[in-house]
């Protein structure tokens, strides 16, 4: 009874819980609310300000975002902190335990791409694009390529390191990368996952390639989507 009362005091009596000792059920207690997992996704490559989170999750309201941040903070998944001067702005950042959900998120995303209902042409955020490369990368395909791919995605810049079959996305300056792709995340996703020719995106001014063009052409072929699952026949 004491444990139950402690749980209720931390999460509020109105919050619906599964009341199930299973770890999966408790995971849903922690991050099962709508938008919670996507908030975590956007913080997976480093801290962000409230306004940046709203911009990267255009469907979420300020009120709901506030609620999800507060809930994840209470659960120990993220923390708020103040950046040192001269910026002195508040950011949200995953805790060490929060960051440990990264492989789980990747596995979930890869599993979901097999859904016949998954539409890879929908909008995608910069962080989601970077994490998708790690989730979809297969060592058998990427192991022969050691390279640094830079990305300029609006206000955000990243470097994707391919080495010995590993795919590692990080925030960073792409100036010293072997090739740099600059454009909208959805446009780059269209080239990688939708087979849109690079030339077509360049002609539309949706993509700018600088550096080793042959490497860019190779890169967009490295992440094939898995085959779709079969839908069960209707009786």
Structure report:
The chain is an alpha+beta fold and 235 residues long. It folds into two domains: 21-97, Arc Repressor Mutant, subunit A (Orthogonal Bundle), CATH 1.10.10.10; 105-219, Nonspecific Lipid-transfer Protein, Chain A (2-Layer Sandwich). It has helices at 2-11, 23-31, 36-42, 50-56, 62-74, 96-99, 102-112, 126-136, 139-142, 185-193, 198-203, 213-219, and strands at residues 78-82, 90-94, 147-153, 156-163, 166-171, 179-183, 207-211. The strands form two sheets. Strands 5-4-3-6-7 form a five-stranded mixed beta sheet. A two-stranded antiparallel ribbon has the order 1-2. Helix 7 (102-112) crosses helix 8 (126-136). Residues 1-14 have low confidence and may be disordered.
Q: Which regions contain 5 or more consecutive residues with pLDDT less than 50?
A: 1-14
Mean pLDDT: 91
How many strand units? 7
CATH architecture of the largest domain: 2-Layer Sandwich
Strand order of the largest sheet: 5-4-3-6-7
Number of helices: 12
Spell out the key features of this protein:
2 domains; Nonspecific Lipid-transfer Protein, Chain A; five-stranded mixed beta sheet; 7 strands; two-stranded antiparallel ribbon; 42% helix; alpha+beta; Arc Repressor Mutant, subunit A; 17% strand; 235 residues; 12 helices
């Amino acid at each position: 009874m004491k444990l139950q009362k402690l749980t209720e005091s931390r999460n509020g009596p109105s919050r619906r819980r599964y009341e199930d000792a299973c770890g999966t059920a408790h995971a849903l207690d922690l991050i099962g609310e709508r938008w919670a997992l996507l908030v975590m996704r956007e913080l997976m490559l480093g801290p962000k300000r409230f306004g940046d989170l709203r911009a990267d999750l255009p469907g979420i309201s300020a009120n709901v975002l506030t609620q999800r941040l507060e809930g994840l903070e209470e659960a120990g998944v993220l923390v708020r902190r103040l950046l040192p001067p001269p910026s002195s702005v508040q950011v949200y950042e995953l805790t060490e335990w929060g960051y440990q959900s990264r492989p789980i998120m990747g596995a979930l995303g890869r599993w979901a791409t097999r859904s016949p209902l998954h539409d890879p042409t929908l909008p995608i955020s910069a962080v989601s694009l970077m994490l998708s490369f790690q989730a979809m990368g297969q060592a058998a395909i990427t192991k022969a390529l050691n390279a640094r791919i830079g990305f300029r995605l609006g206000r955000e810049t990243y470097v994707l390191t391919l080495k010995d079959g590993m795919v590692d996305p990080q925030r960073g300056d792409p100036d010293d990368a072997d090739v740099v792709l600059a454009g909208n995340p959805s446009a780059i996703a269209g080239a990688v996952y939708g087979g849109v020719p690079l030339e077509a995106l360049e002609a539309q001014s949706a993509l700018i390639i600088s550096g080793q063009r042959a490497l860019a052409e190779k890169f967009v072929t490295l992440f094939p989507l898995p085959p779709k699952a079969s839908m069960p026949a209707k009786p």
